[in-house]
Amino acid sequence: QENTLASPVGTTLDRYIMRKQAEFPFATGELSQLLRDMALAAKIVNREINRAGLMDITGNYGAQNVQGEQQQKLDVVANIRFIRALKNGGEACAILSEEDDEIIHTGNDQGRYVVAMDPLDGSSNIDVNVSIGTIFSIYRRVSPIGTKATKEDFLQGGRKQVGAGYILYGSSTMLVYSTGHGVACFTYEHSLGEFFLSHDGVKIPEQGTTFSCNEGNWYDYPEWVRSYLTQCKERRYSGRYIGSLVADYHRNLFKGGIYLYPPTAKNTNGKLRLLYEGYPLAFLIEQAGGKALAGTEAVLDIAPVDYHQRAPLFIGSSDMVDDLVACMVAEA
Ligand code: AHM
Ligand code: MG
């Protein structure tokens, strides 16, 4: 089915969040505020990304700019911006970031939520003006309010997410999120500085004809992944791989398709990180009617053991994921 333009036209992210919150009279509004904090940081990061080309002219990471200040890489800048927004916001008591080994305590011990994020994914694409993204995942803490967050707050498992989303810095900047009641997509209007609802109740087409993976790893893929990819080619499906997870995922979400980061002999868990890449994107895809597997298991059912653990990812249109599973079963 087609994802049509949402109505009413002209709904800002803030208004949408407010309207949604009104549907849940017992909600405290903190999750809503947290989403607004993420959106604010996204606007700032978006601005920094737009200037990235100019940064190259004025000096790279490690170099000093004309003011004599140390310039920082964009992924470091993004990390700082999101952390700062969440600290200022007050709803998140701790943050797990791809950029930091350990969790970051925000100082808001009264906060009810924790956030796991990849502040700027696809960082190898920054230098060449290719789309990049931010991915985030939200949990309600399990540790007592008023104390410091613990590892258990982050290792609850994908099904315990209360919200997840991403920001795509592409030809348009978009924020896509879900709090478990469908997927909404907002497009940033630069001149107004606002995110506007562009698609509500986003559903991924059940059937897709696009596969996205790094085929350079072909000889390291399991045999069943190769049979599946061969089948895609026999059916004359399209191969599309940007190498920016959020961008590949976003295209597949709207047009149908599958994204694969399989295990290899060397990296038996693939490359992508479970807590801030696999879980949030799997949460969104299930909300959009698609599927996400890490092999035989649903991504959301994998038990987390560590902050930065990796997991294979097969995610997208349900028919394509089913065909992949058929190849796996046939080989077993
Ligand atoms: P990163 O978190 O270091 O940026 O790595 C994640 C990225 C994804 O955006 C992308 O899909 C994948 O790595 C590409 O990996 P590869 O170059 O192995 O195909
Ligand atoms: Mg990443």
Automatic annotation (TrEMBL):
Q: Give EC number(s), comma-separated.
A: 3.1.3.11
Where in the numbering of this chain does the Fructose-1-6-bisphosphatase class I N-terminal domain appear?
12-199
Residues annotated for Mg(2+) 1 binding in this entry: E98, D118, L120
Location of the Fructose-1-6-bisphosphatase class 1 C-terminal domain = 204-328
Instruction: Identify the keywords attached in UniProt to this record, alphabetized.
Output: Carbohydrate metabolism, Cytoplasm, Hydrolase, Magnesium, Metal-binding
Q: Where in the cell is it found?
A: Cytoplasm
The pathway this protein participates in, as annotated, is: Carbohydrate biosynthesis; Calvin cycle
Question: Where is substrate annotated to bind?
Answer: D121, G122, S123, S124, N214, Y241, Y259, L260, Y261, K271
Q: What class of enzyme is it?
A: hydrolase
Q: Which GO terms describe its molecular function?
A: fructose 1,6-bisphosphate 1-phosphatase activity
- Cofactor requirements of the protein: Mg(2+)
Where, in this chain's numbering, is Mg(2+) 2 bound? D118, D121, E277
Q: Which Pfam families match?
A: FBPase (PF00316), FBPase_C (PF18913)
Oligomer and partners: Homotetramer.
Under the heading PANTHER family, the entry gives:
FRUCTOSE-1,6-BISPHOSPHATASE-RELATED (PTHR11556), SEDOHEPTULOSE-1,7-BISPHOSPHATASE, CHLOROPLASTIC (PTHR11556:SF35)
Write down what this protein is called.
Answer: Fructose-1,6-bisphosphatase class 1
Chain's gene name: fbp
